[in-house]
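If your schedule permits, I should be very grateful for your opinion on a structural question. Thank you for your consideration; the sequence and its tokens are set out here:

===
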Amino acid sequence: MTLLRSLLWVSLLCLGTSLFAQFAQAQSELSRLLPNIAAGDVVEGATGFGRVHDDLPVVQVLRDQEQIGWAFITSDFVSTTGYSGKPIHTMVAVDDAAQVIGVQLVKHYEPIVLIGIPDAKVKALVANYRGLDLVAEAESGGTSHELDIISGATVTIMVIDDSIIRAGLKVARQLGLGGLAVEVETGPRFEIDPDAAAADDWMTLEGDGTLRRLSLDVGQVNAAFAAMDDPRAEDRALTEAPETTFIEMHATLISHPAIAEALLGEARAANLQEWLDEGDHAVAIFGRGLYSFKGSGYVRGGIFDRIVLIQDDISVRFRDRMHQRINGIAAEGAPQFNEADLFKIPADSGFDPTEPFRIQLLVQREVGAIEKIFTTFDLGYRLPDQYLRSIAPPTAPEVPASVTNVTTQSESQAHQALWKRIWADKTTEIIVLGVMLILLTAVFFFQNIATRNERVFFWFRMSFLTVVLVYLGWYANAQLSVVNLIALFNSLTEGFSWQAFLLDPLTFILWFSVAAALLFWGRGAYCGWLCPFGALQELLNQIARALRIPQWTLPWGLNERLWPVKYMIFLGLFGVSLMSIEQAEKLAEVEPFKTAIILNFVRAWPFVAYAAALLIAGLFVERFFCRYLCPLGAALAIPARLRMFDWLKRYHECGNPCQTCAHQCPVQAIHPTGEINPNECINCLHCQVLYQSTAQCPVVIKKIKRRAKVGAAPDLSRDISGHPNQPKTHPAT
């Protein structure tokens, strides 16, 4: 009866979770966030919100029961994914003349704002969009306003600006505000002509418009900043000669096969086509001069924050995964460039290669210790007619099957298609990780063979940890975090879905492997072998030992009392997450993983100093952070007590009297009495090396001596006179 009751409760819980998840998916961001927003905070003088539009997620803004505009959440209309990888929710209100009458930053997860820049500063900047004329933005392609940027939050502000403009134009056109209407295609239509040919020399390509150029000298840039309202811009003018090249930037639509072959060569052009998925396009950008069009923002946040592609109300911001370097230019007479790069334009961006577009360059100037001001310059581009061919208008307005499939698929199907595409793009990384996991599993299953030769096993382990650090960590960013566990618990309470976790294949595979390893070997399989930050600590400690830096062995009593600290940290983070997931994510910076592994130390100095302090401590106390502070290790140690097998072999003499393993354990996980603490063991297998050592293990040495003694041949020359068994001899008489 108890079992049936438990099954009933589990079934009801699963049903409730499923229904809640479906309900949450059906909700718009407007309906979810509106109850917590006061109309007066968005639009000055507003007294409340009215009805929600029947067909669009927009709501009336009222003043004394009279409608004065419409309000909406930008995330309902355009992608607002920011630095954090999560949406930035902004509410915008527009009136019947398509004028912005109110803007409020409602909710976001941007770490640079949550941790470094005051939230009030960003909200004040966003509020300055009041009075923005969307009709003028539609006519200018979204450039009639000046972009005001907060230094240090470039990516975040650019995403907010982009979402306000694009979402505002979409809503204004859908509602017919300010005379705007949904654009209907008229006139002749064109498509890419794959059979078109391109010249093979740079000068001709530039002359016929295949390549377009933006040239700025120091004098032009200084003049642009001098024309700004901020007098500090002119005070910090560049000191080079006015005619010095500030930047010379060339661009072309290189996804056209003929252009690609002319500039990259046949082999590299073929590789480009393999890199692009169906419907994708790409631009090539070349630059030289004092200023870099790439900058360094993509290193910290994965976004190239100095360039953006704009076409009408569509904008495409390039991320690091949409980028490849060009190693050589095949066109004859090509100049020497400091930078030459390819940028992918995703198929779902709405980009039309047959229509004009522009590359907008963001130029910055420091006016203070940490403050900058910005201005923009445009490089316009239109694919020459020679690469296009006209399309006859369709006889009937039939919707292509592919479009029908996309527009009619459910949200679940769309998510499934997305994660499958991501997994396909990560095929190489998945294969490498799979090989590493298989190799590690073989080592654990055949540990007696693996640890037989101490020197060979040592170098195998160092090599494996190096691959984990460089490839899994710094290259693939496959660093697990306690934040993942907090997010998992949060999803279980708010409607669990596999889709979100499948979006990062390496992290998903690692977590699945960790879950399996917990049942077989405990937490050590990950902590000792697959954690990039753990690998960094151990490799640095080995270097410290080689440099004869003294190693500190903590007294056993102190070591044992420091163990609980990491459990307290984990439980504290878990408790905070029950009240505020955002606050828990901020406090999870106790893990230096983001600084040392994900961002490669390119971060604000307090974070770098903290990570460096932990690594320096690890030079003297091996894996200091893992042993005493890591909340992820603590979280994994709790379920690891359920492991089904005990693989580490021990002798009866271990601990009494022998203390060899206890003294040599890198993380002091072996009690003086000889027992291995599974909560602290990282499965480095050093104790198994000692278990078979003929030079260090007293038990093995004793066995070898005993065997040698038993197997030795008798000494026949020895004098045994007087032995009881010796036959007696009688003297001759």
Remarks:
- The chain is about 45% helix and 15% strand.
- The two ends are 104 Å apart (CA to CA).
